């Protein structure tokens, strides 16, 4: 039911944790299930130099958070802003239809963290 990639990211999540002095923080809640996710970013020369996540959610949410941080790391702010919910699910080899809503959290939290960074003055 889950792809090998989903299981791998679920069992060995990349970039899990918190960045205490993050340049941008984004928290979103999933209206479907009530789960929550926070993404922290560190920005250097307009690129995402570091990124971490904390997820209170299901296995698919953990896997998609992990995948999203891998996709975003090293990207420019503009490129990271273009990462979509669909990109995350596709790069994981797909998700079961009932779990598609779980992949929304990660991309939304990433975008919220970038917006937070830009609102704080961005660009450095
Ligand atoms: Fe809540 Fe997956 S069931 S994020």
Automatic annotation (TrEMBL):
Q: Which Pfam families match?
A: NifU_N
**GO biological process per UniProt:** iron-sulfur cluster assembly
User: One GO MF term, please?
Assistant: iron-sulfur cluster binding
Q: Which InterPro entries match?
A: NIF_FeS_clus_asmbl_NifU-like, NIF_FeS_clus_asmbl_NifU_N
Give the coiled coil ranges.
Answer: none
Domain (NIF system FeS cluster assembly NifU N-terminal) spans 1-121
Alphabetized CDD domains for the sequence: IscU_like
Superkingdom classification of source? Archaea
> What is the protein name given in its UniProt record?
Iron-sulfur cluster assembly scaffold protein
- Which organism's genome codes for this protein? Hadarchaeum yellowstonense
The organism's lineage? Archaea, Methanobacteriati, Candidatus Hadarchaeota, Candidatus Hadarchaeia, Candidatus Hadarchaeales
């Amino acid at each position: 039911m889950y792809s090998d990639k989903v299981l791998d990211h679920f069992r060995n999540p990349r970039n899990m944790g918190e960045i205490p002095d993050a340049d941008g923080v984004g928290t979103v809640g999933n209206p479907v299930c009530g789960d929550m996710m926070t993404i922290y970013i560190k920005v250097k020369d307009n690129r995402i130099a570091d990124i971490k996540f904390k997820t209170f959610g299901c296995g698919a949410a953990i896997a998609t958070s992990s995948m999203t941080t891998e996709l975003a790391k090293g990207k420019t702010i503009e490129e990271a802003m273009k990462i979509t919910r669909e990109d995350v699910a596709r790069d994981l080899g797909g998700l079961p239809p009932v779990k598609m809503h779980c992949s929304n959290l990660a991309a939304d939290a990433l975008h919220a963290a970038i917006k937070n960074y830009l609102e704080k003055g961005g660009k450095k």
